[in-house]
Design brief:
Order of helices and strands: HHHHHEHEEEE
Strand content: 15-25%
Largest sheet: 5 strands, mixed
Radius of gyration: 22 Å
Strand order of the largest sheet: 1-2-3-4-5
Low-confidence stretches: none
Number of strands: 5
Structural class: alpha+beta
Helix content: 55-70%
């Protein structure tokens, strides 16, 4: 029974991407058989390629892929809802002719593209590239680093965070933001008496 569960779990990323891809292609007017074949090929190639590139076994890859998917899902839902509201009229009106069908497909395509780009940018802004020198890696908590320097300003995206230096009792890092490429630094020191980290922000 356990092997069956692990097999189903390992296949979930493939099945989910296959189902989503087939549904989207059908919405865009692709014939069902062609949509199933194309979605299956893309799902298999993408998931298998990522699995091999990351060097994970099937179960670990499935857990990682589903975890990433769940972190992105709230952004997708939020952006999808925001793009749905101004386009509700054309999506809900009755289909009367070919022009309405084409208009509906155009609107849905634009909504999906907007949701993908914006939610992807929002997710990346909270999970930017971390540039950490090898000698500092053992002393850096990546979650705390992201929480300290990731931008929370609307319209501003964190491009990357670079660790300048780190030891057991100190950390110095700097972040660069888009679109104006302004930057912010954070220097933290560990106080052995209180057992807490204290620090301040500075302009590099």
């Amino acid at each position: 029974m356990g092997y069956v569960f692990l097999g189903v779990f390992a296949a979930l990323p493939y099945l989910i991407l296959f189902a989503l891809g087939a549904a989207l292609l059908c919405v865009f007017g692709v014939k069902p058989r062609a949509a199933l074949v194309a979605a299956g090929a893309v799902s298999l190639a993408l998931n298998l390629g990522l699995c091999l590139a990351l060097g994970l076994n099937a179960v670990d890859y499935s857990a990682a892929a589903l975890g990433k998917g769940l972190t992105i899902l709230p952004y997708l839902l939020a952006v999808g809802l925001l793009t749905l509201i101004p386009n509700a009229k054309i999506l809900l009106e009755a289909v009367e002719d070919g022009r309405t069908v084409r208009a509906r497909r155009t609107v849905i395509s634009a909504m999906l593209a907007t949701a993908l780009v914006v939610s992807g940018a929002m997710w990346y802004s909270r999970h930017p590239i971390l540039i950490i020198p090898e000698e500092c890696a053992a002393y850096v908590d990546r979650d705390i680093l992201r929480g300290s320097l990731c931008s929370r300003r609307f319209g501003q995206m964190t491009l990357y965070i670079r660790v300048v230096g780190a030891t057991e009792t100190s950390l110095c890092a700097e972040a660069v933001y888009f679109p104006f490429f302004d930057s912010l630094g954070c220097a933290r020191e560990y106080d052995a008496d209180t057992g807490r980290w204290a620090g301040e922000y500075y302009e590099p």
